Amino acid sequence: MTSTPMTITWDEAGETRSALWHSSNGAPAPRRIVVADDTLTAQDAYKLATGGTAMLWRGDYHNARQLLGAMARRVPDPAKAKRGAAPATVAQDFYRYRQGRTHRARILSMLLVPVDPGPVVALRRAPDVTVAWLNAFGPVAEPVLVSLQELLGAIGAQQWRTTGLHIDALDAKIHPHYGTFAPVRGEYLNLVAQADLHGADTAFDIGTGTGVLAAILARRGIKHVIATDSQARAIACATELFQTLALDGRATAIEQDMFPAGRAQLVVCNPPWLPGTPQTLLDYAVYDPKSTMLRAFLAGLPDHLNDGGEGWLIISDLAERLGLRTREELLGWIADAGLEVVGRADTVPTHGRAADADDPFHAARSAEITSLWKLRAT
């Protein structure tokens, strides 16, 4: 998701200056910008940000990072803020929590840094961001302004990409690209790695992301796997993974919204698990507005399965435990699509948040079950 490039202006040193606004999340450009430097206090910065005024940083880069941290400490913790609120359902609590997180992100996005062609961050003691920026956003042809928060996200993503993430189900590392969700939860990968393939030799992986599920299927012996995703950055990531693992003769990634043409013996989908509105690129791997992708997968599945073929829906029941969706709704969508459940494999979470008693939704997360639903056309 990228925003249409637009020019923003501000007053500095007695003249009007301009640059392109950059936001990979499609965030609107700030309406008011003031120039700030190392003399700005955290309290004043927080007041400006909460009032809707962005600060274009002209001081030391490391001081800007410290200021951002100090601003973050002043933002009310949404987990604590809800404790004094009126009694609510778990779903209402979760909605309030997300509102708080969105508010926090908006406040922190008000600290801006200049990036010149190169790309180079035009600040004292700024790091070399060339590789991180190019991999995340592409070339810079003219000066741009970007939130420091987003720049730090690109730098962190490059570290992930360089270091890689070991996937036990592949016995190999993957290298997630910026904006492509890293599969840090191995339990759902193991479900796909262990489920009976019933001799399938063709498979579709819908919404492939990094391509990890398609790679697992190809590694297990499926001869032809087509992986689809609507995001070009995901296709580039998946293609790179297939080439690195020498699976490009078996697995192919194509830019496509949902299903490719034709049918397969096995069709796999791991849609976003929670109904909700995405706010960032990574949110698209977590939040599915009105369960749109989940419902589209179920509705389209019968037309893309070979006779006797199976669809595998990999999804957590966290949405049900948070009161965002019911099991009856899910089963109703399966039946309405002309599908029947022929099997299910369950697993419990092993990630750190499930054991974090300080998480405001610990009860739901600790009881969460992730399932691989096996579906066939009736």
Please, could you describe this protein's structure?
- The chain is α/β, with parallel strands linked by helices and 378 residues long.
- The chain has two domains: 6-159, no CATH class; 165-377, Rossmann fold (3-Layer(aba) Sandwich).
- Helices cover 34% and strands 25% of the residues.
- The chain has helices spanning 42-50, 61-74, 78-81, 90-108, 130-137, 148-163, 186-194, 212-219, 232-244, 292-300, 318-321, 327-336, 362-367, and strands at residues 6-12, 15-21, 32-36, 53-57, 111-116, 120-121, 144-147, 165-167, 172-174, 202-206, 224-229, 251-255, 264-269, 305-316, 339-347, 370-377.
- A hairpin with a 3-residue loop joins strand 5 and strand 6.
- It is globular and about 75 Å long.
- The two termini are 37 Å apart.
- The relative contact order is 0.09.
Order of helices and strands: EEEHEHHHEEHEHEEHEHEHEEHEHHEHE
Note poorly predicted spans: none
- In helices, the fraction of residues equals 25-40%
Tell me, what's the shape? globular
Mean pLDDT: 91
Roughly what fraction of the amino acids lie in strands? 15-25%
Question: Structural class, from helix and strand content?
Answer: alpha/beta
**CATH level 1 name of the largest domain:** Alpha Beta
Annotated CATH topology of the largest domain: Rossmann fold
Number of helices: 13
Identify the CATH architecture of the largest domain: 3-Layer(aba) Sandwich
Please state the CA-atom Rg, rounded to the nearest Å: 23 Å
Describe the sheet with the most strands: 7 strands, mixed
